[in-house]
Amino acid sequence: MTSYLFVVLGAVLVNNVVFVRILGLCPFMGVSKKLETAVGMGAATTFVLTMACGASFIIDRWLLIPNQLEYLRTLSFIVTIAAIVQLTELVIQKTSPLLHQVLGIYLPLITTNCAVLGIPLLNVSLRHNFLESLLFGFGSAVGFTLALILFAGIRERLEAADVPIHFRGTAIAMITAGLMSLAFMGFAGLDKYK
Amino acid sequence: MLEAILVMAFGALVLGAALGYAAVRFRVEGDPLVEKIDAILPQTQCGQCGFPGCKPYAQAIAKGEADINCCPPGGEEGIHKLADLLGREFKSLSAEHGVEKPKAVAVIDEQVCIGCTLCIQACPVDAIVGAAKQMHTVVSAQCTGCELCVAPCPVDCIHMEPIEETVDTWKWKYPVVPIRQVA
Amino acid sequence: MIPKLFTFKGGVKPASHKDESADKPIRIAPLPSHLIIPLRQSARAMARCLVQPGRAVLKGEVIAAAEGPLCTAVHAPTSGTVRAIEPQPVPHPSGLPAPSIIIEPDGKDRWIERKAFDYRAATAQKTRDYLRDCGIVGLGGAGFPSHVKLGPGEKGIGTLILNGAECEPWITCDDRLMRERAEMVLAGAAIMRRVTGASRILVGIEDNKPQAIESMRTAVEKLGESAMEVIAIPTRYPAGGEKQLIRVLTGIEIPYGKLGTHFGVQCFNVGSAHAVFRAVAHGEPLVSRILTLSGNMAKPGNFEVLIGTPIRELLPLAEPRADTDRYLMGGPMMGVALQSLDIPVVKGTNCILAGSPTLFPPPPPEMPCIRCGECAKVCPAELQPFELYWFSRAKIFGKTQEYSLFDCIECGCCSYVCPSRIPLVDYFRFAKGEIWAREKEKAAADVARQRYELRLAREEREKEEKAAKLAAKTAAGREKAAATLAVAEKPAATPEDEAKKALIAAALERAKAQKEQVHPGNVSNLTPEQEAEVAAIEVRRTEIREMAKPHLRQDD
Amino acid sequence: MSEPVEVTPRESSVLRISLRTAAIMLAFTLVFTALMAGTYKATEPLVAASLLAEKLRLIGEVLPPGEYDNDLMADAIMLPPQGSLGLDDETRIWRARKQGAPAALVFETAAPDGYSGRIGLIVAVAADGKLIAVRVTAHKETPGLGDYIDPKKDKNKTRPWITQFSNLGFDTVPVKKWRVKKDGGRFDQMSGATISARAVTNASGRALAWAVEHRDALFALPANGRFEERKP
Amino acid sequence: MNNSPYSLKPASVQSVMLRVLVALLPGIAAYVWFFGAGILVQIVLASVTALVAEAVMLKLRGKPLKPFLSDGSALVTAWLIALTFPSIAPWWLTVLGTLLAIVVAKHLYGGLGQNPFNPAMVAFALMIVAYPLLMSQWPRVGAADFAVQWEAIFGNRQVLDAVTMATPLDALRTVLRDPEQRAMIAGVLGGKATFGNIGGRGWEWIAAGYFLGGLYLLQQRIITWHMPVAFLATLFAVSGAFALYEPDRFAGPGFQLFTGGAMLAAFFIVTDPVSGATTPRGKLIFAAGAAVLTWIIRTFGAYPDGIAFAVLLMNIAAPLIDMYTQPPVFGHKDKRGDSP
Amino acid sequence: MSAYKDIAWNGLWKQNSILAQVLGLCPLLAVSTSLVNAVSLGLATILVMVLSNFAISALRALIPYEIRIPVFILIIAALVTVVDLAFNAFLHDLYLVLGIFIPLIVTNCIVLARVEAFAAKNGLRAATFDGLMMGVGFVWVIALLGAVRELIGQGTLFSGIEMIFPTLSGFQILPVEYPGFLIAMLPPGAFFVLGLLIAGRNWLDARANARMREQRIHHQVEHATDHANSAPA
Ligand SMILES: Cc1cc2nc3c(=O)[nH]c(=O)nc-3n(C[C@H](O)[C@H](O)[C@H](O)COP(=O)(O)O)c2cc1C
Ligand SMILES: Cc1cc2nc3c(=O)[nH]c(=O)nc-3n(C[C@H](O)[C@H](O)[C@H](O)COP(=O)(O)O)c2cc1C
Ligand SMILES: Cc1cc2nc3c(=O)[nH]c(=O)nc-3n(C[C@H](O)[C@H](O)[C@H](O)COP(=O)(O)O)c2cc1C
Ligand SMILES: Cc1cc2nc3c(=O)[nH]c(=O)nc-3n(C[C@H](O)[C@H](O)[C@H](O)CO)c2cc1C
Ligand code: SF4
Ligand code: SF4
Ligand code: SF4
Ligand code: SF4
Ligand code: FES
């Protein structure tokens, strides 16, 4: 039981997708200017990534490995993800127009978030079982969301700071992300206790 | 090889059908974005942006056909708002579309006006009153300062007057930062 | 019975400097050479001028009438002649001029006929109308019309609060008023109680004015009014702020956007109560007030001054010292620096303070905010001024509103303590102004959009109508067109030069047609009068052109 | 590319369009899957060869090719998870023979107690009980501090730290001395990063002891056999 | 001409920062007493570097030099860097750390008052990640005289082996990871509970010095009680609970509070007004969070003193903490938490 | 021809995927720990971009609007897989170093963005050229990043070149005593260096802008003086 907890915590903090695994940076940089949008993007990603991990595990274990088609992993995973994104959009559009209004614009962006493909691929190479895959996906997505929200908090404040002119915008955001990842290095070594 | 193709073909069939269905079934009608953009534009309707009015410009922005820095009356602030809304980077006002000017209203020199009604036809917000061959006046509360009436006047009797500051319209100025003066 | 006092958070204790003028009895200021009475005496609205230059007026005569719900009448402060009605600088941070009536006193100071108002017989509404016509506005500084504040609001008023706190340093006019005319103040309060139907009156006085407290307590006993209490409150700026005083005396907190009446309390300055008493008991409209002259002056004191007295003529009474570099209207915490000494005393003027570089040194350079939180500790509105500042400075106004910018009462406590010497209040005033301006602009844009869309719709309709008309005409039109075509075709067959001629003719024709389009029928089919008018205009126009020519050439 | 078609979603057309898109999708899939499958088939032998070469190179680091003459890949046995070697997965033991005689065992082992967790090792133990060499295969030790255990990162290029175990056995270094100097043993450690050194030293000692103990049983197993520890 | 208010309380950034420097003096005195005067060299190195870096950056950014150079904030940063780095760190380590703190962590964000991260802690974290060995060599009490320290700072690092030792925190961690040696923990931590053994010899006196300085800051109302109390109390509670649960595995609160930079952090580092939370509730959360993270990283993480990382991690969260702990505004108290 | 110049300028600088569009960051930051790694991944990316732009431009008439995205992804993924397999077969060591970042080219936003924004609307030659230029734009940035990080981090350049050309080896640029600044090799360093690069780009752009403005003003002033000189005549 605790080992599952460590999978989640490890994915959220110690091996944070953004700061340590360096995945999902485009939306991390692009959708973090406002807290609101950061929350929306985080929620959408969490849902899709968790689903993607489950689905890709099933495909890998039951379709690809038995047929020795591992080389189709990239393709089948990304296509699955695209399908999940589309279906998610359909479902929430039907069931909750409100949620759709909140998440709608983020869903299409998720297909090009490389964490959404990277985490399922990592699941394979870390040889996670089904539950671990799900939890790893969920934990990573929570880690992504956490990073995104914290970053948005800082950026909202930074917007008013007297940053030297050439550093305004993306440049200082990069430096901030660097310092955040430096801070997250403090968690290094915690995962050896699992 | 064969199983590869079979597996993928199966996936493709399902997905293709689903997507085709979805794309047709759930096409989003109308574009709420245009309304949001239009709400930011100053509604001066001056056409300096190169479009016949604010709404067409809003549509062009929403379609990605126009840049966000083409509206001089909206000024830097308007551009900031648009950049925020659209998640784009801020750009300073494009010089070819004009410069930000202090707000002004049109004033008709009633001595000179010949009542030709050309200005009435030009004014996009019906801010000019007067019938043919009678003196025309600008209702300054309704004038947006677009200057469209200035050019058509055959006797050059319309000029723009900056809005004067009164006790009612006066605003506190941005505090000067004395530290720069020390430098 | 000593009621339980509440406290408000924050606040500061600047050096009080009250001793300089507190023991100086109220003196009547001499008549000035002229009086400048701005038409705007109440905070929100301008009165309608009733007099013309040259007209003789008596003291107390209405010279401008109240118009609209938030307006009060304006009266001649003394007898004399109206000299002019013109824009004059007024006490406003902008220093901009505003329409004012200028009166030259005749030196006789003759009153109109004064008659006490029997408020016991009148309805509350009648009394309020009477106060409006007496020009009573709050004398505590904000200048809000008192008759409006005396209205019942939603719930009616249970508690009436008299504000005798006078928390700003230097100012002692309310202190003197309470010492010298306590009974009148309380009688005024009693009238207000009757109008509002309030059950009790609480008078809040800062405990650094023991004589005033004493005098007011004696007066309460003497008047024998029940449910009227004089309460000493701890001295701490801004205890006299309406919300803070109400909080201290009753524990009620009034948020921004809500009025005292929502909570059944209403607060008046003691001077306002005094003015009400004078209006009701003696039939004297508000034409004078008591103010303190203090600061860098040799003989500070308190004076009863006519509204409209130019500051310049008041100053000799207190003898400003030589190193005075500026004058403030109001106290050092909230006052306004005067940009001209020709600015008159208005109803809200409670103090003229002479400043010197030693008394009010120019602020050292502004440093960046270090988020030390001092400002938040002293903010009586319990805001986070440094957050407001952070976003006001960067002009991110949406955020300032999220941090409740409009709850700021501009008391200045935050600026007072800031170690970085940031003029915080200036940033907040700036942000508020910009937000208001933006809201106005937004409203204007919405109107413009509507009008534009209406116009588009109309044009569309007109086009359709025209098209319909055109269609009706086509039959005839087609025949005509065919005929012209036939004519036009003919020359085409003739030799070249003729063709050229025809082309030129056609071009001329087109040009003419175009011209006609540009000048739609304006100059044809005119009545003789119109023709005359046009001719006259034409003449004027050529004259103007001639006159303008040299300039034009220069410009080129 | 076709422009967005303005369609009103009537059921029949929806069905038609769905079918059409499905068909196109199918066609694309077929073509590109074939492309991939073709590439896969073409590269398969190459990939297999690379994998083999990688393995051989790794083995070569601890066991020079001259030391044996058999086909290592063929002469391997399976090793179920071994707690004492710090292994929680099934691994292989490769048996090197020279002219048919047992020459050496090559196997993976791990030090669970590195500064930042597990350190993966590969060792070769000669049939005579000497540790031929040990190398680090995976570690997360602090770069610049604990990573000298990997000869690629070791500043001392001429005599990397990890080579000090080469050709030593319990006959030359008693079990008690198979420790870092700081713990009273025989081996150097890098000052300020003892933990990594201690972990590697102890793990290599454990591996040597284990190999010496099971040497005969291991060599006796048939190729592709499975080693089972017999509890005495 | 300025606007109201016209009278201002005499206070300035400079006086605030100077008093912080004064408050550091008792701790520095104890430091010198136990570990020698090498720390003074480091303080000078860091101060000079900080001032030069500040001046250059101000020049580059076209800001006036005088008010900013004299505000003292760069000195506070510099002193804190010197005090958290090993006193025998090579000179370039201190210089590089200070440089990065002032240039990257402070001026790229707009300088004084605008940096979201604590500059001194950025320096510490960067340096311990980049040069873990150099950042963990501390002299033994009384082992290195000034000459040796000078030597170590400006040249010959060879002298070090004789005089360095594992700091108490490091010893604790080394022992922790080896179950066989856990019995030794008592030895490391000084089973005899004399004062000299609470946080390791010498360390607790330095901590006491910082505590004294902290009291001065409190008395001067430069810091409020929230941060130090929340930080120390949380560290005490967490470490106490775990030490009770498994005393031979976890160090007790006495050790945790008096070793390493805990006391310095409680009064001087988490209290940095610029990069920390500012609302009263926010301060409590910020400091308590920093304490928990410190304990976790000290106990389980790869880096010996978790304070720097803990503070940086809380810096990241500070804007959100502030945003969600806005105290209710006057008159809006019924709607708690409704404000942004 | 100038259209091609525009495409090149866009790819290399103006619309540079990293510096201007801030897309494709993950491989950029994760793999730029050394020059060799960086360039290798960059080349793989170029390959994919050129091939996918080519393929999609060629097939664009066949792709219905509704399913264009899935089809694009399908094509890109297939091409990536091909490249991945090729690396595995021919550059196995490098394949191990680059890890999941080769498959992740699929989600590299620039690839999809270019395909959608350019290849789907333009002719074969232009599209292929655009893919190439966008790819080169990515490569020079990632190469610069890799070089800077490697140099600061360990004082070398081209370390690991033996993975590609077994006969070569890297260079020690800085003195051997250089202690190395490890941060540069770790994620924080990746962010810092990229931040500096972007600031550098801003600076260059600002300078170019300023110069242009100056020229224009200069031009105007000249014009005006000309005018003034001629006016009295
Ligand atoms: C910061 C602040 C301080 C104030 N101090 C006083 C004061 O000392 N005495 C006073 O009568 N009014 C003071 N006022 C004005 C009161 O808030 C309030 O407007 C007044 O008491 C209402 O009475 P009035 O309408 O009769 O003027 C202050 C206002 C503010 C914002
Ligand atoms: C950030 C950091 C990382 C460290 N990484 C390692 C490491 O990877 N390997 C190691 O053996 N020691 C490492 N140490 C050092 C240990 O904490 C401990 O000081 C050392 O192993 C004790 O060795 P000594 O007895 O020779 O001083 C590291 C220390 C720090 C501060
Ligand atoms: C914020 C902070 C403050 C510190 N203050 C001191 C101090 O005042 N005195 C001291 O000797 N060590 C101080 N240290 C050093 C650490 O407590 C710790 O002992 C140091 O990182 C040594 O690591 P090691 O145990 O791996 O050798 C401080 C560290 C940090 C992060
Ligand atoms: C109470 C107090 C604590 C401070 N702590 C720090 C600190 O931990 N690190 C630091 O770099 N500066 C510190 N400073 C100085 C200053 O706030 C810092 O340089 C700013 O972060 C620079 O913008 C402190 C200042 C005060 C008043
Ligand atoms: S320039 Fe601005 S105000 Fe003028 S029409 Fe265009 S959008 Fe409207
Ligand atoms: S009056 Fe003239 S300037 Fe004003 S809105 Fe109409 S056309 Fe524009
Ligand atoms: S008092 Fe001044 S420096 Fe302190 S937080 Fe407030 S605004 Fe900032
Ligand atoms: S001026 Fe506004 S923000 Fe400042 S203390 Fe007063 S109420 Fe608070
Ligand atoms: S490359 Fe864009 S999200 Fe990773």
Brief overview, please?
The complex is a heterohexamer of chains A (194), B (183), C (556), D (232), E (340) and F (233). With 194 residues, chain A is mainly α.
How big is the Rg of chain E? 21 Å
In sequence order, what are the helices and strands of chain E, one letter per element?
HHHHHHEHHEHHHHHHHH
Strand content of chain B: 5-15%
> In what order do the strands lie side by side in the largest sheet of chain E?
1-2
Shape label of chain E:
globular
Percent of residues of chain E in beta strands?
Answer: under 5%
Structure description:
The complex is a heterohexamer of chains A (194), B (183), C (556), D (232), E (340) and F (233). Chain A is globular, with a radius of gyration of 17 Å. In chain A, helix 3 (35-64) crosses helix 4 (73-95) and helix 4 (73-95) packs across helix 7. Chain A is an all-alpha fold. In chain A, 72% of the residues lie in helices and 0% in strands. Chain A starts with a helix and ends in a 10-residue tail after the last helix. Chain A contains nine helices and no strands. By secondary structure, chain B is mainly alpha-helical. Chain B contains six helices and four strands. In chain B, helix 2 (32-40) crosses helix 3. The longest helix of chain B is centred in the N-terminal third of the chain and has 24 residues, at 2-25. The relative contact order of chain B is 0.11. Residues 178-183 of chain B have low confidence and may be disordered. Among the domains of chain C are: 19-28 and 132-355, 3-Layer(aba) Sandwich (Rossmann fold), CATH 3.40.50.11540; 495-555. Chain C is built from 16 helices and 17 strands. Chain C has helices at 19-22, 124-133, 146-149, 173-180, 182-196, 210-223, 242-250, 270-282, 311-314, 374-378, 385-393, 397-402, 413-417, 424-493, 496-518, 528-555; strands spanning 26-28, 35-38, 48-49, 56-57, 62-65, 74-75, 80-89, 97-105, 159-164, 200-206, 228-233, 265-269, 288-295, 301-306, 326-329, 336-337, 351-355. In chain C, helix 5 (182-196) crosses helix 6 and helix 5 crosses helix 8 (270-282). The longest helix of chain C has 70 residues, at 424-493. Chain C starts with 18 loop residues before the first helix and ends with a helix. A six-stranded antiparallel beta sheet of chain D has the order 1-2-3-4-5-6. Chains in contact: A-B, A-C, A-D, A-E, A-F, B-C, B-D, B-E, B-F, C-E, D-E, D-F, E-F. The interface between C and E is large, with 62 and 42 residues. One iron/sulfur cluster binds next to helix 10 and helix 11 of chain C.
